[in-house]
């Protein structure tokens, strides 16, 4: 868990035996803007052996500083953590997924900082089964991989929940049983790799929403047999703005003022819905 409550930052995990860590570098410096304005930086910082970083709080309104904390965990032996949690008020969170660890639940939260997670560049990436990432004003960038990249692709019991209030969201995620990506006043760009639910009879749900921002969702690297096996109803509605609806493989196509409906198959139980209040709506299906 990483916690930033104004005067300390702590990294731990939920195992009884915490993983060995090495605080490779801790640096504080005044931002160039601080020097120009004659603003002072933090007076003192302490690094404790348990990974806790303490600094003296101050009531000065002109306080300005930058702080970078680099924490390196020993990547071996392989570990399985039930919960790994990172929280911060103002600090950005950067997670490089180069550990040969397996995390059942990864939780990250920043109030005003950005969150960056990348597990794509490494041969033995960090495996995360369920991901929960939230932010108020900070941006969230996440590149999450499935267990062992799952090649060949197999059903996956995975959930992803990403939410911001005003921050941007860019996410590449594996889709298993549930994927929920939402923001209130930010933009969403999501690249979703569909694996499907672990059991054939289980539901597999994908939700994205933005009250005042743009939303772009693309299914990436989907298995051809998965697309060919999709049967159900599709509906798209927009109150104010143009609607583009394109798919040659759908049946019973119906289009009117601000809406479009279609289906594939006669007894399909899948449902695909898109709703827009004011803006532009484009639904392009490669079935």
Automatic annotation (TrEMBL):
Name by which UniProt lists this protein: Uncharacterized protein
Species the sequence originates in: Cucurbitaria berberidis CBS 394.84
Phylogenetic lineage: Eukaryota, Fungi, Dikarya, Ascomycota, Pezizomycotina
